[in-house]
């Protein structure tokens, strides 16, 4: 893939059709759990339709015996049998099965793969450490807007670290036997000895693996992020795109490890199943950050599975923006007139003449999401749309951008600037970001009133921003100068910062 390839930023209702592709599934046989995820399609913004894991703990006792224990071997085959039945019932067109650290290290790993094939007909692709690092990094590349940084994926049996460089994986990578299960064993012997052992292994990280940003991948580190969001009452309760300073992450990690060794109550925000591995995940995050010295940690909900999906897409589809694709896949099927969203993109362009690509992609996403709650009672639309967008599992977006999307849609539905539900999320936005969100939302509110969701009517109306006024030029026969139009034009003028407004025929 080359940097010269075009990066389209547009809305296309045809791409947003939900029935273009069949569901796609992946079974990930890890060292701790075996998981089935069924996605709505094999595409740029895959949305999980079904997600289930079973704790088979293939890596348990592996260091001592070199083999997968019999009961865990059997449980894994049974899990694959069930997962295949579910996938078939859901109409999954293609079900891929991958195996990672435990199955590739175990002396009876090939026997397990054969047993699964014989029992279910599913072939297990046993990934090398290099492949695991590459796919995890591709998952981060697929889930963020042109990410640059190190990607660390901590699983049950191993830790992979590689470089994400915009659209490709860097040449330096490493796979180390520092997953949750072996680190649990080390911690059982004491924190001091575990530090010595882990730090000794981490010295194997290549010097080239250095960056101000560290992307944390894996269930244990996602649970860590959830715990921190709960502890700090974070305004957005979503792991993907959650960011914190490395110093703060290390401090919180040390606190979690210390609390866990003291056997306190369960960690808030962490599921019961994750409680056991939380000390190992927190401990490893602390040691990795100490070694790599990044400035910031960004948590990713996407990893190996999504990287495998991304690797199967054409180069052109990989270059589609993940946020824009996800927003239109979600928003356009819910809209009364899906074709109105591209018309809104054209309608709002004049408002932001100095817009950069990072801002344009947010504007397109807002346009795609601008009609998602039209079936709800009018008095609920501003609050319901805000809360829904703030928590929806979009990718390619950080928490500040997510707050921008939700705020803009709030204003599109006549929301007040002082509505109580805007806090604390709106406090994440700068003054200019709030202003931009309000202008965009008010412009969409006006557009829906004058055009009724009809693109051809909107095409006859134009906005002009003058030094002291906003002028709406419209075909009076198709977009009447009504009192409601005037009220909404007045709201837009106030957002822009001018007092006068005018409707010209």
Number of helical segments with 4 or more residues = 21
**What percentage of the residues does DSSP assign to strands (E)?**
15-25%
User: Which second-level CATH architecture of the largest domain applies?
Assistant: 2-Layer Sandwich
> Percent range for helical residues?
40-55%
CATH superfamily of the largest domain: Exopolyphosphatase. Domain 2
Alpha carbon gyration radius: 25 Å
Largest sheet properties: 6 strands, mixed
CATH class of the largest domain: Alpha Beta
CATH-derived topology of the largest domain: Nucleotidyltransferase, domain 5
Give the CA-based shape: elongated
Structure characterization notes:
The protein has 505 residues and is α/β, with parallel strands linked by helices. The protein is built from 21 helices and 14 strands. The chain has three domains: 24-126, 2-Layer Sandwich (Nucleotidyltransferase, domain 5), CATH 3.30.420; 130-305, Nucleotidyltransferase, domain 5 (2-Layer Sandwich), CATH 3.30.420.150; 321-454, Hypothetical protein af1432, CATH 1.10.3210.10. The strands form three sheets. The protein has a six-stranded mixed sheet with strand order 8-7-6-9-11-10, with helices on both faces. It starts with 23 loop residues before the first strand and ends with a strand. The model has no long low-confidence stretch (mean pLDDT 92).
């Amino acid at each position: 893939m080359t940097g010269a390839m075009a990066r389209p930023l547009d809305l296309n209702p045809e791409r947003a059709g939900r029935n273009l592709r069949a569901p796609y599934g992946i079974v990930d046989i890890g060292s701790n759990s075996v998981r089935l995820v069924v996605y709505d399609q094999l595409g740029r913004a895959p949305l999980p339709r079904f997600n289930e894991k079973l704790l088979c703990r293939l890596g348990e006792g592996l260091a001592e015996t070199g083999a997968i224990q019999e009961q865990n071997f059997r449980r894994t085959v049974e899990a694959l049998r069930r997962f295949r039945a579910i996938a078939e019932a859901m109409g999954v067109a293609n079900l891929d099965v991958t195996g990672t650290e435990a199955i590739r290290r175990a002396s009876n790993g090939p026997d397990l793969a054969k047993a699964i094939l014989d029992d279910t007909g599913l072939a297990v692709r046993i990934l090398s450490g290099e492949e695991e690092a590459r796919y995890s990094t591709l998952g981060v590349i697929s889930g963020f807007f042109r990410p640059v940084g190190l990607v660390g994926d901590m699983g049950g049996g191993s830790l992979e670290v590689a470089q994400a460089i915009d659209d490709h994986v860097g040449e330096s990578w490493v796979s180390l036997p520092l997953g949750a299960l072996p680190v649990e064993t080390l911690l059982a012997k004491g924190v001091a000895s575990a530090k010595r052992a882990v730090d000794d292994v981490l010295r194997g990280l290549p010097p080239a693996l250095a960056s101000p940003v560290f992307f944390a991948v894996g269930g244990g580190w996602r649970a860590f992020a959830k715990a921190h969001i709960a502890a700090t009452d974070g305004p957005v309760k979503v792991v993907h795109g959650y960011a914190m300073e490395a110093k703060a992450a290390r401090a919180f990690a040390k606190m979690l490890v210390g609390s866990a060794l003291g056997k306190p109550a369960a960690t808030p925000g962490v599921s019961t199943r994750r409680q056991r591995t939380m000390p190992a995940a927190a401990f490893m995050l602390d040691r990795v950050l100490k070694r790599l010295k990044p400035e910031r940690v960004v948590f990713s909900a996407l990893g190996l599975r999504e990287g495998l999906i991304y690797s199967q897409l054409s180069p052109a589809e990989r270059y589609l923006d993940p946020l824009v694709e996800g927003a239109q896949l979600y928003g356009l099927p819910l809209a009364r007139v899906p074709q109105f969203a591209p018309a809104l993109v054209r309608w709002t362009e004049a408002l932001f003449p100095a817009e950069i690509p990072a801002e344009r992609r947010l504007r397109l996403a807002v346009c795609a999401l601008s009609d998602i709650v039209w079936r709800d009672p009018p008095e609920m639309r501003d609050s319901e749309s805000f809360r829904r967008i703030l928590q929806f599992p979009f990718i390619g977006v950080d928490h500040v951008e997510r707050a921008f999307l939700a705020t803009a849609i709030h204003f599109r539905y006549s929301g007040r600037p002082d509505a109580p539900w805007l806090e604390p999320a709106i406090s994440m936005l700068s003054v200019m970001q709030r202003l931009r969100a309000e202008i965009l939302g008010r412009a969409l509110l006006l557009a829906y009133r004058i055009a009724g969701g009809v693109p051809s009517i909107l095409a006859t109306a134009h906005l002009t921003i003058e030094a002291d006024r906003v002028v709406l030029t419209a075909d009076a026969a198709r977009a009447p100068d009504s009192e409601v139009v005037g009220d909404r034009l007045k709201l837009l003028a106030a957002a822009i910062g001018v007092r006068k407004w005018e409707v010209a025929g």
